[in-house]
Amino acid sequence: MENTNQALGLLFQFYQSLLVVLLAPLLTGWVNQCRAWLQNRSGPGLLQPYRTLRKLFHKDAVMAFNASPLFRATPYILFGCMWLAAAIIPIIAVNLPFSPAADVIALVGVFALARVFIALAAMDIGTAFGTLGARREMLVSFLAEPALLMVLFTASLISHSTQLPRIVEALALQQFVLYPSLAFAGLAFVIVLLAENARIPVDNPGTHLELTMIHEAMILEYSARHLALVEWASSLKLFAYISIGIALFVPYGIADVGNWGALPLAIVALLVKLALAGAALALLETLLAKMRIFRAPEFMGTAFLLAVLGLLIHFLLGA
Amino acid sequence: MIDLQLLALLLTPLLGGLLLAAFGSRSWAAELNSLMSFCTFVAAVVLTMRVIDSGPQVAFNEQFFIDQFNVFLVALTAFVAFTTSLFSRPYMRIEQHHGKLTTPMLHLYYSMYQMFTLAMLVALTSNNMGIIWVAMEAATLTTVLLVSLYRTPASIEAAWKYFILCGVGIALALFGTILLYFAAERVLGEGGTALLWTHLNEVKGSLEPTVLKLAFVFLLVGYGTKIGLVPLHSWLPDAHAEGPTPVSAVLSGLLLNVALCAVMRSKVLVDGSLGTHFAGNLMMGFGLLSVVVAALFLSRQKDIKRMFAYSSIEHMGLITFAFGMGGPVATFAAMLHMTVHSLTKSAIFFAVGHAVQKAGTQQMENIRGMLQISPTVGWGLMLGTLAILGMPPFGVFASEFLIITTAMHDYPWTTPILLISLGIAFAAIFGKVQPIVFGETTARRLPHQPALVPVFVHLLLVLALGLYMPPYLADWYRQAAALLGG
Amino acid sequence: MQMTYSLQFIYLLASMLLLIAFAMLSQRRILSLINLFALQGLVLSLSTFVVAFSTNQQHLYYSAGLTLLLKVLVLPWLLHRLIRKLNVRWDVETLINIPTTMLVGIALVIFAFNLAAPISQLSESITRGLIGIALASVLLSLLMMLTRRKAVPQVVGFLAMENGLFFAATSATHGMPLVVELGIALDVLVATFIFGIFFFQIRETFDSLDISNMEKLKDDNT
């Protein structure tokens, strides 16, 4: 029984990894499609990200003359980091074999690693845009990261563990309790998610305007398969963030280990939650206006403030 | 019986307020105002006799509580309110004649004056800490529009400051009251009795000390804003300088006392709960700071009413300090000082009011030669100043002497601070008042006879208290001091 | 410790109260400020209602109704009318910039929680943490009053402070005696009317509701 459980666990871990890497572009497509609908456009269709990826993989890569090996390696590192992050977050079942690795602080570290590489690669070529993008990215993430950590700490304090599966277990599988501190953390998390994934009030993924772009400025020099990997990594990052959000704030419906019968239901629940989260994200992006880059620190400050408040309220109220 | 007497005390100003709200613009409104204040005074005297005879009493389902301490303040309040109403009749007529006030403004003034008296009397006699708060807030609200009565930019600014600062202060006091209730609820159970002072006083030993400590800090800071204790005093000089003089007199002479009474009520509870000198130390600290800072600010004043407002801060600081020291002598001295300060300070404001009317300005450098123009105003101002500075025959000397000797005995290190501050205050005030009284004149004649009877009545009383303290009065003060845990 | 649903709900409302206090602190427009104030009143009234329901105290229902009437309907309506009449829909100006204010705000919250911590520990009653939250929102409103330059936001700050106090009175201590609550409500109402009178007086005299015009009364230049 123990062995079968372990073997099954491994199998499901493998399936989850495969699932996330395949589903991630679909989520991006879904968000774009929702946004198109909300803006009264017909939209490119759900599968457009896949088509883009296929097109990019079939092209010949062009590389700047003075590109270093770091520049070549970065897309792979980026993709690897994001895949790892998305694969270990407990979204369909807790206690899968890799789950001890899903420590929230380690997760933040993985994201930071990817960010360092993309920023370095952006400056590698030496174009003005790359450097500018890297600088702005660092500005935003330097403010977003503490806020994210605070959000995660609030959840950890409630469950007395920094391991994501433990947190999910504490929240989902025990009796339902309303946590005001988590409500604060949730608001803060949404802001961090918008900032970290180059979403609208902070960055606009749809334009290449030098005054506003952050993420796009960093990847201007990439083409073909490298660009494909970077884009795919972005999708995975969005997927990972939304999964963290689901795991922390609405983990209900996740399957317990050994209870494999609940899995199909868990997958359906996950898909519904992802679809809702994507639609909500699209709605937010439509409602909000892109802010000036110098307002971004204030925006991130709000996230930090909310997260700290959540933490304080947890200390005071124990909830 | 006690119910009836209390009812008479509280209903008279209420009736007065309503009557004056209806007839405040008639020509006899000022007389009506004085009459109602007189009736209030009579009711207060009757109540006082009763309490002195038969000790502390509760009335109206325990909602009101009268003991020797607050009945002394009730009598004082009613008396000064009455003399101030006598003073304000000619004073306001002159102001109206000078075109500074219109009839609707006077209408507002008369009705608010009675309501203000009512609010103070309720705050003094209420047994419910919550109602005390409500009445204190009502006292602020009724006087705010009086401070801005002249509608000059400066007076509106002063009133706004008064309103905002006291609003904030009083809100903190409410938080303190809530904390008090929070502690009391655990002992007395939920419901109406948990805020009644008499009930709280019975169980004060079992109230939670941590909560009471915090509650007292909030209450002291909150009501301290009203008393004019130093870091929170900045509304006081403005409001006194810009409001009409009768309002300055009652603010200085009465409202500050009422706020101090509320603080003392809380102090008794906190002392009982903590068993330490925490509340006393806090009050001594605030009091000492007020004395020092006010003394230093006195010499920089150019506006005469502002200067005497700072003098009020100084004296309230002294009283707070004395109450903080505790013990029978210091508490006795503090209450005596409360009495003589109220009487003297309102007398000074009356004299200053007429002096300002004659000179047409509040700037001290332009007020000169009062003695030539009107000897009564000049002598009133001079004697009042000497009295408030603690010159020997007057009662202020007696109370200050008692306070300082007690301080020398219990807290020797405070004595030099107090003495130096009083010295600075003496030099500052005397140096400025002297040329006003004796200098060359620039003043004009007034269209009405000034009312100086109240000035001299007050000063005579202060003088009498300084020369001879009637035994029953001393006994009364001693009983009150005992009630405050002295 | 397993908490009842009503208590969880009160905690949630308490947190919302604090959040609204912060939102007011960061708000730049007067209209939104007033709407936030109304929202705060609504949260307050809801929490009073929940307390009334869970402790079965009749008089708290009256408090809840009174709050709803006064703080959600009457006062915001009065304020809206006032700013329409005075035509002051301009932006709120702050004395210090908003991020700094927010940081100070966080420090104040920590201070308040620290102050309230001993109280929450000694009380085994279910509402132990709420005093801290109430104190924090009182201090935040105080901060808002201090950092705003215009008269209307100062007044909204004053009223928001009253909200925090009311929350302490109803939720944290299960309601003061009704007489006291009525008295407080009356005082607030009268205060608002006087504020209204003041707005007109200030504008008549200074041609603006900017408090920074009112800096004449100092000790040196009088």
- Mean pLDDT across every amino acid position of chain A: 82
Please provide the ordered H/E string of secondary-structure elements of chain A. HHHHHHHHHHH
Which pair of protein chains has the largest interface, and what are the residue counts?
Answer: B-C, 54 and 51 residues
Count of individual domains of chain C: 1
Give the beta-strand count of chain A.
0
Order of helices and strands of chain C: HHHHHHH
User: Mind telling me the C-alpha Rg of chain C?
Assistant: 18 Å
How many DSSP H or I helices of chain C?
Answer: 7
Report the sheet with the most strands of chain C, covering strand number, pairing sense and barrel closure.
none
Features:
heterotrimer, B: 486 residues, mainly alpha, two-stranded antiparallel ribbon, 19 helices, 78% helix, globular, C: 222 residues, 7 helices
Give a verbal description of the structure:
The complex is a heterotrimer of chains A (319), B (486) and C (222). By secondary structure, chain A is an all-alpha fold. Helices cover 70% and strands 0% of the residues of chain A. Chain A has helices at 2-38, 48-57, 69-88, 104-124, 128-159, 164-172, 180-196, 215-218, 224-249, 263-287, 296-317. The longest helix of chain A has 37 residues, at 2-38. Chain A is globular, with a radius of gyration of 19 Å. A two-stranded antiparallel sheet of chain B has the order 1-2. Chain B has a domain at 277-486. The model of chain B has no long low-confidence stretch (mean pLDDT 88). By secondary structure, chain B is mainly α. In chain B, strand 1 and strand 2 form a beta hairpin. By secondary structure, chain C is mainly alpha-helical. Chain C has one domain. Chain C is 77% helix and 0% strand. Chain C is built from 7 helices and no strands. Chain C has helices at 5-26, 30-55, 58-86, 98-122, 130-147, 151-172, 178-206. In chain C, helix 2 (30-55) packs parallel to helix 6 (151-172). The chains are: A mainly alpha (319), B mainly alpha (486), C mainly alpha (222). At the A-C interface, helix 7 and helix 11 of A face helix 1 and helix 4 of C.
